[in-house]
Amino acid sequence: MRLLHTTKLKIEEFIGRRSDAVLVREGRDAVPEYTVPRYAILSHTWEEEEVSFQDWQGRMDSTKRKKGYAKILKSCERARQDGYDWIWIDTCCIDKTSSAELSEAINSMFQWYRDSDVCYVYLSDATGTQPVYIEDDWPSAVSRWYSRGWTLQEVIAPAQVRFLRRDWTDVGSKEDHLDAISTITGIDIYALKGGDLSRMSVARRFKWLARRETTRIEDMAYCMLGIFDINMPLLYGEGTKAFIRLQEEIINTTEDQSIFAWAGSKPKVHNKNIWKDFDLILSGYGIIAESPSQFERSASVAMFARPQPSRPHTVVTRHGTRVHLLMGQSVSNDDFMAVLDCQIGSTPGVFAGIDLRRIAKNRFIRLNHTHIFRFARCGLNGEVLIEGFDPTEEQKELVELDSPGISYKDWKLKEVYIAQSNLIPLPPGFWVLPSEQGMSIESVYPPEIWDTAANILQPPVARAKIGAVGLRVRTMSIALVLGYYSNSWYIDQPWCKLCSYSGEDRLSDVFAACEVPSQERSTIHQSRKDYSKLAGLKVSVRRSYVSSVPMNIVQFHVK
């Protein structure tokens, strides 16, 4: 850690943060050991011509002409007036040309702010003539400082915070304006007053960041490392993966399922056909949020986390996030509701829930990512039973409070894997092998899942109905519809069905009108026996392995 001397204006380096930490270097010369001094620290927003560590080590005549130099002088002057010989300023006290030093500094920054004697918050855009918030002498509502990601930890970590206007006049302390700061930022007073952040729910802490911004996308994750007491390497260039990586680290250190209680905005639909969610499914909505903004509606999640110690630990694996959830089956065989072990709202006994869709035997993706559901046990008159329920135990019946009259029965505890976008497996495709005797493929619906080179119909997820193939058999046109049977927990056998089809019919209409056959029937179907007999065509589909990859083989027999 480097500190700037407020009188000598020299940067000196310290090692350690224990009581026996020592000063080891002044410039290039070794000096005797000293205990680490008391220091002030600056919190501000970066502007044009900030002074870097290299500037401070170079020619001072050019450094003094930079706009940021005056900010450093004023900070030193204020610290000196308050009796501090040392101050830490991020612009000039970190060598940002060293990736190792930058990584160490960012991972240590929360602790540096916490260890400071006082933090000066410089509101460079706040003047006495601007609108104020709540109190006449409180200009912070108009300050850009409140919208930045890095300043979140800088108001939480220090015990003593002083706010300074553009002209460096003091407008009070954090303690003086506690209610106003909490209202502006959404930060709970418990946290502002130095409460134990590890006791607070993950969702609540991410909510503080939801409306903030950083210059670099990755910093939306890195600025939260201290808030969650996480240490991880910095990988600039990874984009939104940094935020996912942060959550994976948090999952490894906590049992708090509120990390999954987030809701995103509605996705943009690019296609308007039966596979309109093709891009949505492949881009993924796993159980892990992709942006802090998705926690904006998580303010109603309980402030303090009370996870059940008996619940098995959640683990992030290459197959997805392995988590134990209380799950109830919805009307569709493939869709389920899952209760998270976190209270939500002001009514006792109400838990947050999410909507999941099965994509394999015990693998799921999040289905309705725009909504956090609310589940409770209700009495005969529909009232919520405030004694609630234990989300780690099976339940006979729970009610989703936003859908009055709709209840889900037979809730079971399940260990499931919830995939992120790049982990979603493709179900077995349909490999269509037309007969060489007077038979050809005329068209396929939907065309976006058809591999023309291999004659494979490859859906992104398994559904009851997958697609249709338009066939020409001698002089006749026939439509073959393909799909999957399914039961309550896994994808079962494929099915196929022949349907009448003429040149005037659209293949998409034939597909839409085709009914899924009952599972008790054979996997060989003919919608019109006389027609199939006239065409002399029989078709079968069977599950097989092609080069160790599961595939549904579709074969035809022409008489």
UniProtKB/TrEMBL annotation:
Domain Heterokaryon incompatibility: 39-129
Domain of life: Eukaryota
Chain ranges of the DUF8212 domain: 241-306
InterPro entries, alphabetized: DUF8212, HET
Name this polypeptide is given: Heterokaryon incompatibility protein-domain-containing protein
Taxonomic source organism: Colletotrichum navitas
